[in-house]
Task: inverse folding
């Protein structure tokens, strides 16, 4: 792709001044929220939203995505876009977590249920990718970035077909995919749960109605915010990865600190506005 | 006890509908050539290979299917709020969403092909006329099945999310699962059928997709016919398993251990799939063998 | 993406489209407020026209951003626009008549911060990144507010959260049968997110022309308005919904036929049931 301006490649370089400004913005937002709503449910919800955003941003780096070359067996990974594949897993996890939130109040149980939902979807999807590659196309898995699979020790170079960068899902990429699904599902569920608690608490007073009556509004608001924030965090992480990554063993994985700061700040900002809807 | 039996019955129905939806989704996106394989359809004229494939460039599969299903679900919800019978509401919602999908498909083909005018790729009106209705038909099946699954989740199984939100969630999941499973099969096996079987496409061959094939000049219906053999059913089983197992473990085990029961079963299922994946990978390494001699003596 | 994206020139300058789009969208949004002043629902269709104006503007913004080769593809830009816009829009609906202005300002702030994070912390280093994300967040918020106004009659929080449910012939207020309670916002979220990136994505290529892309943007806007009008039948009176539907169908038909004409104008050849042409040497 011929880019227009001479843009320095978004390498693994960390722009320290920008990171520090990002962290400062994060702290300013946290302080402003504390100032406006005081310690209590709303403030804890903001912290929860930030943690959820970090989980999402970090989890996206684990998911193996090969993009267009993967669809031709030229690169390892899944042949879909990074942000939307992670969104698919995270939203499947959010589905499970929202269901668990109805039957129990235990935060740990709900978030882990959401995580398992996302991990389960990625596990099934990744297994079927391997299935198609092996039984449908006759192509064994091979990584292009490492000589030996870090988890199983399988050698990779002689299983790479000529003229390609590898193909399929080496076992470390599979594990990375499942871990990415786990983190994404957990993060999305955590954001949903935090916002749901705040809305269930404050909406009855704000709208002069019974808690049971405004429950649909609270659920829908929390749900659409969780999805919106998930997409923002996933896209920021996808920008960090610049499109394709083989999994946790890929050198690009080391870029994740930048995404953590960016996702934390973006989640803090969106979370603060989401909470201000009812708390101001 | 009755409610668990009822729940399992609904779960089985939802799993079956999801499998149908997954298969239809994959065939629809292969006939339209959407998603990552479509970059080859776009690239081919630029490398001098003109073709008669339908170039449906509507974002990737997850966001596009997120839209069709959320839209179908939103319309169904609106019709149900107007006291229309649920099944009729879902049919009408799916039909209108399919209309939107068809219009998007035509504008995508016209736009992308017109923008390739510099390379001489013509707009084939007969391709537009014949492919669009076929991809709309598959889309209708997938949208109807998935919106019904969402309706069952909300109305019969008691999930708190309203129908449009469930549609958004499962639409993106459907697109992600179907595209992950079906895209390599379509992209490598069918688009590059003239390359050697059992190896990836070498980078030097990019753009050289198959344009003249067994039934004359290849078009997207031929591609759909092929990928409906394995890619479609595999995507269907994949998405069907995702929906079924997610609902099954919740319906059966949610009450056990105050929620921990479903979590433990979920971890067990993930481990089972990991073992299966590892088995398939080792089987391939043993039975297919390496492409070249290993550099040094290794296991 | 292995598609060559070369710098594509031509057409109106982006700042003209931006100012025209912003003013048109905000003015049309305010025209829906006539519903509240007069106590009817017949002006709801102005909300849909506001979304068309904003989507036309948005397609040019996405073209500006993605011409620089962001590496991940066009649809993610639409997602980040609407993800940040939905939050600004829902916050702004609390402020009654000032809601559109609050939405624009708040979305600009959110977009600026997210743009800074994407450009500097994540190191994208694209010259127009911050400006593009500011514009896209504003567009996301305005489009969602337009759909909300079109489907419920006004853009205030009370109208988004109340609906009517008919029990035994009596019409009772219900939170569940409302725009937010029924999560119709999820459907319009995706409608907008796909509609904003489709014009550039579908007209991508070396022979891109701006007027064809803008016409396609208007067509996507009116198409989305058609289905939004159908969905609004559950929330506002049938005659008001039918007015929106009528305006949308007329607008869609006009823009769709114009778009086909422009594609015909731009295409290399317009063939019907012909074999693949042989490329002449040196073409």
Result:
């Amino acid at each position: 792709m011929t880019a227009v301006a001479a843009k320095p490649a978004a390498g693994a370089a960390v722009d320290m001044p920008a990171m520090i400004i990002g962290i400062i913005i994060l702290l300013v937002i946290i302080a402003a929220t504390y100032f406006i709503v005081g310690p209590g449910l709303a403030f804890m919800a903001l912290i929860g939203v930030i943690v959820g955003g970090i989980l999402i941003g970090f989890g996206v780096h684990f998911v193996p995505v090969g993009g267009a070359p993967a669809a031709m067996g030229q690169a390892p990974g899944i042949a879909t876009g990074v942000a939307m594949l992670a969104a698919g897993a995270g939203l499947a996890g959010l589905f499970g977590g929202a269901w668990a939130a109805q039957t129990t109040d235990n935060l740990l149980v709900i978030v882990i249920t959401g995580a398992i939902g996302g991990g389960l979807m990625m596990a099934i999807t990744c297994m079927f990718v391997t299935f198609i590659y092996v039984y449908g196309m006759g192509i064994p898995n091979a990584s292009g970035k490492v000589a030996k699979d870090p988890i199983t020790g399988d050698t990779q170079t002689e299983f790479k077909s000529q003229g390609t960068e590898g193909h399929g899902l080496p076992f470390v990429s599979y594990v990375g995919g499942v871990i990415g699904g786990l983190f994404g599902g957990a993060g999305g569920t955590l954001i949903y749960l935090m916002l749901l608690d705040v809305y269930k608490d404050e909406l009855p007073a704000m709208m002069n109605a019974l808690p049971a009556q405004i429950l649909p509004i609270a659920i829908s608001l929390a749900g659409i915010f969780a999805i919106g924030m998930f997409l923002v965090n996933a896209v920021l992480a996808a920008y960090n990865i610049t499109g394709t990554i083989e999994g946790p063993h890929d050198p690009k994985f080391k870029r994740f600190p930048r995404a953590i700061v960016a996702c934390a700040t973006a989640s803090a900002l969106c979370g603060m506005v989401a909470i201000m809807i009812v708390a101001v | 006890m009755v409610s668990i039996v009822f729940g399992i019955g609904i779960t089985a129905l939802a799993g079956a509908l999801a499998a149908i939806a997954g298969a239809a989704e994959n065939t629809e996106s292969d006939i339209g050539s959407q998603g990552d394989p479509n970059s080859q359809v776009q690239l081919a004229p630029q490398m001098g290979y003109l073709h008669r494939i339908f170039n449906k460039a509507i974002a990737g599969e997850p966001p596009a299917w997120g839209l069709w299903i959320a839209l179908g679900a939103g319309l169904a919800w609106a019709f149900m709020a107007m006291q229309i019978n649920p099944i009729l509401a879902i049919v009408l919602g799916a039909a209108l969403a399919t209309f939107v999908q068809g219009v998007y498909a035509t504008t995508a083909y016209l736009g992308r092909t017109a923008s390739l005018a510099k390379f001489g790729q013509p707009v084939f009106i007969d391709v537009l006329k014949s492919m669009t209705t076929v991809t709309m038909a598959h889309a209708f099946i997938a949208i109807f099945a998935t919106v019904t699954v969402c309706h069952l989740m909300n109305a019969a199984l008691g999930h708190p999310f309203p129908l449009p939100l469930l549609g958004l969630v499962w639409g993106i999941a459907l697109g992600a699962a179907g595209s992950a499973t079906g895209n390599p099969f379509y992209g490598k096996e069918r688009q590059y059928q003239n390359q050697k079987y059992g190896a990836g496409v070498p980078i030097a061959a990019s753009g050289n997709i198959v344009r003249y094939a067994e039934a004359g000049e290849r078009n997207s219906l031929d591609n759909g016919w092929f990928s409906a053999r394995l890619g479609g059913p595999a995507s269907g089983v994949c998405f069907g398993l995702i929906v079924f197992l997610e609902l099954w473990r919740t319906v059966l085990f949610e009450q056990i251990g105050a929620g921990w029961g479903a979590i433990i079963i979920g971890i067990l299922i993930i481990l089972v799939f990991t073992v299966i994946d590892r088995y398939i990978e080792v089987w391939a390494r043993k039975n297919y063998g390496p492409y070249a001699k290993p550099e040094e003596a290794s296991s | 993406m292995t598609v060559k994206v070369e710098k594509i020139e031509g057409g109106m300058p982006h700042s003209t489209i931006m100012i025209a789009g912003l003013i048109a969208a905000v003015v049309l949004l305010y025209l829906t407020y006539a519903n509240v002043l007069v106590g009817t629902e017949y002006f709801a269709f102005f909300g849909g026209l506001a979304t068309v104006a904003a989507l036309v503007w948005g397609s040019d913004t996405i073209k500006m951003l993605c011409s620089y080769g962001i590496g991940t593809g066009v649809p993610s830009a639409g997602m980040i626009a609407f993800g940040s816009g939905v939050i600004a829009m829902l916050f702004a609906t609390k402020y009654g008549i000032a809601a559109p202005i609050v939405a624009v300002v708040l979305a600009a702030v959110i977009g600026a911060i997210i743009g800074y994070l994407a450009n500097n912390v994540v190191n994208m280093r694209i010259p127009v990144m911050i400006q593009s994300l500011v514009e896209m967040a504003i567009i996301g918020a305005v489009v969602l507010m337009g759909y909300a106004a079109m489907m419920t009659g006004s853009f205030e929080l009370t109208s988004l959260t109340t609906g009517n449910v008919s029990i035994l012939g009596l019409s009772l207020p219900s939170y569940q049968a409302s725009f937010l309670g029924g999560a119709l916002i999820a459907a319009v979220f995706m409608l907008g997110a796909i509609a904003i990136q489709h014009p550039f994505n579908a007209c991508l290529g070396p022979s891109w022309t701006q007027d064809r892309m803008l016409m396609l943007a208007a067509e996507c806007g009116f198409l989305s308005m058609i289905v939004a009008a159908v969905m609004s039948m559950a929330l506002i009176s049938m005659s008001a919904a039918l007015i929106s539907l009528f305006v949308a169908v007329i607008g869609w038909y006009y823009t769709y036929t114009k778009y086909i004409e422009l594609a015909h104008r731009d295409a290399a050849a317009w063939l019907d049931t012909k074999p693949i042409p042989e490329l002449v040497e040196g073409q």
